[in-house]
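Sodium/hydrogen exchanger 9B1, Dipodomys ordii. Tokens?
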Amino acid sequence: MSTAKSDLSKSTTKSQDEDVEEEPSTQPTSIQVLQDPKSSAHEEAKEPVLLETEEMIPQVKKRTYISCPPQGPLNKIITDGIIFILIWGILWTLSGHEVLPGGNLFALLVIFCSAFLGGKLLQLIKIPTVPPLPPLLGMLLAGFLIRNIPYISTYVHVQATWSSTLRITALTIILMRAGLGLDPEVLKNLKTVCLRLSFGPCITEACSAAIFSHFILKFPWKWGFLLGFILGAVSPAVVVPSMLFLQESGYGVEKGIPTLLVAASSMDDIVAITGFNVFLSLVFSTGAVIHNLLASLKEILFGVLTGVVLGYFTHYFPSTDQEKLPKRRAFLMMSMCIFAVLGSQRIGLHGSGGLCTLVLTFIAGKRWSKDKVEVQKIIAKAWNIFQPLLFGLVGSEVSVSSLESNTIGISVITLSLALCVRIITAFLLMSFAGFTYKEKIFIALAWIPKATVQAVLGPLAMETARLNSLPELEVYAKNVMTIAFLAILITAPNGALFIGILGPKVLTHNEPSKLHITLSEL
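Tokens:
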């Protein structure tokens, strides 16, 4: 019996060893050693294999960096560089001198890269407890330097037609983001406070700028109101990130101050752009004033009706059963909006395209509900491409040598007086709205930054005067563009600093609610 038991024990041990030897084909070696610690002989046999494997791993990694041909990041850099050179070569075969120094494509590439680097360098400037400075300021200065450095400006020059088309396209993307950013529920909850902040400061600043420019700059009344509505727009590119910075930190959340300013910034731009289009038609049209006003009302009506029709069209096309639905919606919307704006410029209905874009995107966003966020992200990516081009081109339009000695001084005086009227109006309109004295001061000072709309609309009057061959109006148009440039340069960084410094000091601190945090996704 003992012999049988011994034989049985040996056969069992032998079968277990066979199982252990078969196991490496299906499991890692390190797991084998952990699972069978009792078999010391087998473990010693496996140990050299483990050490050899561990030693070989870093050797393989080293070979990937020093191998020939190169691998990894170096290979990617070389590949991307070759692709860029080949694309540039293909463009050279198609357009010839346009991609060489002095051509439009070469100038656009230089302006884009310079503006992009200018924005990145400005983001490196960080002040504790203060939101970062808007990168658009660095983009603007980059374009300004390109224009005013003698040797570079000789070879970097963009034709007016190319520059105008790109700026109008950038304006279209701004309007799309404004239309999609309007939340009906937020507007319903804020009611009259949002409407007062959207319409009041913009209209009063436009009227005061018209008066001051008429008596200081000797502008005609039409040009004064044209300038006023350019200056009357607040910049969501500065206000929205700064407000979200405070909101995530819990400042002013209880009274909804960040939500109020985010929602009102889009409507403020709509009012300014609409007023600008009306007076642009009045400035460059001939005939009686009443006839011109009726023509402007027709443009507004045509733009709104077209936007309603196209907006309801996007409710059903593309259908919800299609693949990559947000991308298809975004591409369809961008195509319709850009065609509406550029097409209206082509047929002479300057004010119709912008209103069509706003109405179209607002109606489409109401239907898409939560899916609207994905479309907004795609539109934001398109804006990241056009933003350096926009501000770089605007900066390159301002030439120091062409400015008169007293132009900058009286322009700053006109801008400052109109800005004071805006601040006082915003403070008074926030009365009887449940805000404290300090909160009203904060809202009034947070409502001064200007950037995106001024960058688009500022040079538009100059281009219209050139297209209509009206050299006598180019003097006014040049002054308008200069004041718009100075408005961005002065108010954008100061507005961001006011919001970042005063916000934590004057606003009540509370834990941010989930309802308000969801705004950061937009």
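The chain has a mean pLDDT of 79.
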